[in-house]
Inverse folding.
């Protein structure tokens, strides 16, 4: 584990550790095991073990390889569930990195525009139309990170409700998408 | 299995089957097992078995539940790999649903704008900066689906190269992201 205040250049995965402007390791820019190591949650050897395990799990049988490739398999195009999970991951992560305070006018306009276009081109038509209507009736709140994170969480809950899924308690949005669960 | 030309309203999952404007089942709007069933790839009973297996795999131990929830667990925020996978899934799927021929000027402008803003707000700064530079030097090609799909595949390969990953053979982009592997 690291001593308090100690920083490292290279993580257990061999990748360079990326720090945010405030000097803290950036969660969404590093591998999970590297991040756990540089934030002192796990030892270097534990990180290396975890990395080699996840690499082993990722390797697949060679039956279904794409012709001419040694690594790419014949994965089918995403279905509606995979597409939904992927897109929410990206959208919540974008909210999590939105300026904490006082985004510029350009940053506010770009986020609003991005969500609006997203609702036009999302590759499931009925999902897109529903999201477009939601945005029309509930303008994205882009005055700061907390506002946008809450807005995104509520937009996601609107979809959860439509799909008969339980509501996520938005009081936990920051732990789920920004800080993780073991920090105060 | 279905007879040729037969259509169904409700899939084995209990969800309504969504069809594209051309009358074919929409891959990115349906669950994978429903799609496999309505396209005649698997029987109804096989689809139901697959669905119940994936539901079982998705259920988790209750140790790590979010306070007050019976289903949501303390999942950590996405790391750089999960964020990358999710974002590429969404971007390729968007290319896969882009108009095959003659997108309108608005559709072309929106796709270009979306990718440009994406390169500003992607929640990993160094990844975003690299993608911004790539877009500046390689304008997105938005004259039809095939062009955009190839452009996206090449943009992804640019990142694969940076990360030391093998190149994906872009001749297969349509099978990977639009049609799947068992159709001609």
């Amino acid at each position: 584990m690291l001593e308090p205040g100690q920083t490292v250049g290279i993580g257990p995965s061999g990748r360079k550790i990326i720090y945010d402007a405030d000097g803290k390791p950036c969660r969404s820019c590093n591998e999970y095991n590297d991040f756990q190591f540089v934030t002192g949650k796990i030892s270097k050897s534990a990180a290396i073990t975890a990395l080699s395990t996840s690499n082993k799990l990722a390797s697949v049988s060679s039956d279904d390889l794409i012709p001419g490739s040694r690594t790419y398999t014949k994965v089918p195009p995403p279905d509606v569930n995979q597409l939904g999970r992927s897109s929410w991951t990206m959208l919540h992560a974008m909210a999590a990195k939105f300026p904490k305070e006082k985004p510029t006018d350009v940053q506010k306009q770009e986020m609003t525009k991005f969500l609006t276009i997203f609702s036009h081109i999302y590759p499931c038509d009925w999902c897109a139309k529903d999201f477009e209507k939601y945005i029309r009736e509930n303008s994205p709140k882009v005055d700061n990170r907390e506002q946008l994170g809450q807005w995104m969480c509520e937009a996601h809950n609107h979809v959860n409700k439509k799909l008969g899924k339980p509501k996520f308690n938005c009081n936990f949005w920051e732990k789920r998408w920004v800080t993780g669960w073991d920090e105060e």
Q: What stands out?
A: Residues 80-179 of chain B form a domain with the Four Helix Bundle (Hemerythrin (Met), subunit A) fold (CATH 1.20.120.310). DSSP finds seven helices and no strands in chain B.
